[in-house]
Write a structure and sequence with these properties.
Helix content is about 50%, strand content about 0%. It is built from 3 helices and no strands. It is elongated and about 65 Å long. The model has no long low-confidence stretch (mean pLDDT about 80).
């Protein structure tokens, strides 16, 4: 049991850099504005009209796919 406890402390110490960085990033304040490439007036009208969005993977429409 003592060996397992020692191994746990070593593992936590060894991975500390990764989980501390993740913790800092998760606690960061979000930007005040999200910049989007969707600047066409259609998107404002669509947001008022549609309540649901269907997920379509890039594999289905690879030639026309853009990051959203």
């Amino acid at each position: 049991m003592l060996l397992l406890i020692c191994a746990l402390f070593i593992q936590v110490y060894d991975t500390k850099a990764g989980w501390i960085w993740t913790s800092i990033k998760l606690k960061a304040k979000p930007d005040s504005e999200w910049l989007s490439t969707l600047v066409d007036p259609f998107w404002t009208d669509a947001a008022k009209h549609y309540k649901k969005v269907k997920l379509i993977t890039p594999a289905n429409y690879a030639p026309r796919w853009k990051d959203i």
